[in-house]
Recover the amino acids of this structure.
């Protein structure tokens, strides 16, 4: 097993896309992601922060069944949603993401598994594949920068019966920031 150096500022993550009991359509599908919110607290100018994902094993973009896939998105400070999945596709063993955050602005980066086969019950096929990973995201701000960082895990439970999949429950909880939540360079 690879050793993980958490660094001075780190966020633990765990992402999942799997049925509670593989192969059964009567049990919920669990989709879980980690979302990191980054706010530049400066009154003027922009600052950079590096997010280095340190997974325990390389990220799996999509298991062989094709009904679950990895998705990474950035919600920009102007509320545009940008697809960041290619960072994980190009470097599955440990992607580095550099973000520039304007003063008094907030970005949110999310990493999760999503269900792609939304009409599964009409196919009478249960999701049997599973994908997941865990590790740390190491945060490295540029020199002199100060960020307020918060992280949440969001879980979404859906029934595998019905077309499209029917939401059953959702949960969200905060994740501690090692050395934070005020992150300084």
């Amino acid at each position: 097993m690879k050793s993980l150096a958490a660094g001075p500022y780190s966020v633990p993550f765990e992402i999942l896309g799997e049925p509670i009991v593989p192969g059964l359509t009567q049990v919920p599908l669990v989709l879980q992601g980690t979302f990191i919110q980054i706010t530049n607290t400066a009154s003027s100018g922009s600052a950079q922060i590096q997010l280095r994902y340190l997974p325990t094993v390389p990220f799996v973009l999509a298991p062989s069944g094709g009904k679950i896939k990895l998705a990474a998105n950035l919600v920009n400070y102007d509320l545009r949603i940008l697809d960041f999945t290619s960072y994980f596709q190009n470097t599955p063993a440990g992607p580095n993401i550099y973000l520039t955050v304007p003063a008094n602005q907030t970005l949110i980066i999310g990493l999760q598994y999503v269900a792609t086969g939304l009409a599964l019950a009409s196919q009478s096929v249960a999701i049997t594949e599973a994908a997941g990973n865990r590790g740390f995201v190491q945060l490295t701000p540029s020199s002199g920068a100060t960020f307020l960082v918060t992280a949440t895990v969001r879980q979404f439970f859906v029934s595998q019966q019905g077309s499209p999949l029917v939401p059953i429950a959702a949960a969200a909880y905060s994740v501690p920031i090692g050395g934070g939540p005020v992150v300084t360079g």
Summary: The chain has a mean pLDDT of 84. The helical segments are 85-90, 120-123. The longest strand covers residues 146-159. The chain is about 5% helix and 55% strand.
